[in-house]
């Protein structure tokens, strides 16, 4: 079984071990964002209406993955190999 995870707009396939390492690495990571506080009340953004924020986020709040069967991965790799040999 493989796991499809979206990282920076790229869909990557991870093994279970790799997914566990990723989840451990980002546990308790902080997320940079911004909060709307009203026109002229902020320090950045459109009409100075936003302030920066840094919040702790757990992986289950922002990271999702799809299960991908090994047969699908193997079949896709075979199809790619056959397509390049023709």
Describe this structure in words.
The chain has helices spanning 16-26, 59-62, 70-85; strands spanning 2-7, 10-14, 30-36, 50-56, 65-68. It is of the alpha+beta class and 86 residues long.
Index terms:
86 residues; alpha+beta; three-stranded antiparallel β-sheet; two-stranded antiparallel sheet; elongated
Question: How does the SSE layout of this entry go?
Answer:
Blueprint: E1 2-7, E2 10-14, H1 16-26, E3 30-36, E4 50-56, H2 59-62, E5 65-68, H3 70-85
Antiparallel strand pairs: 1-2, 1-5, 3-4
Quick summary of this structure?
With 86 residues, this protein is α+β, with helices and mostly antiparallel strands.
> Strand share of the residues?
25-35%
| Apparent shape | elongated
What is the string of helix and strand elements?
A: EEHEEHEH
Distance between the termini: 30 Å
Strand order of the largest sheet: 2-1-5
Radius of gyration: 20 Å
The average pLDDT value, as a whole number, equals 92
How many strands, which pairing sense, and closed or not: the largest β-sheet?
A: 3 strands, antiparallel
Unreliable segments (pLDDT under 50, ≥5 consecutive)?
Answer: none
Helix content: 25-40%
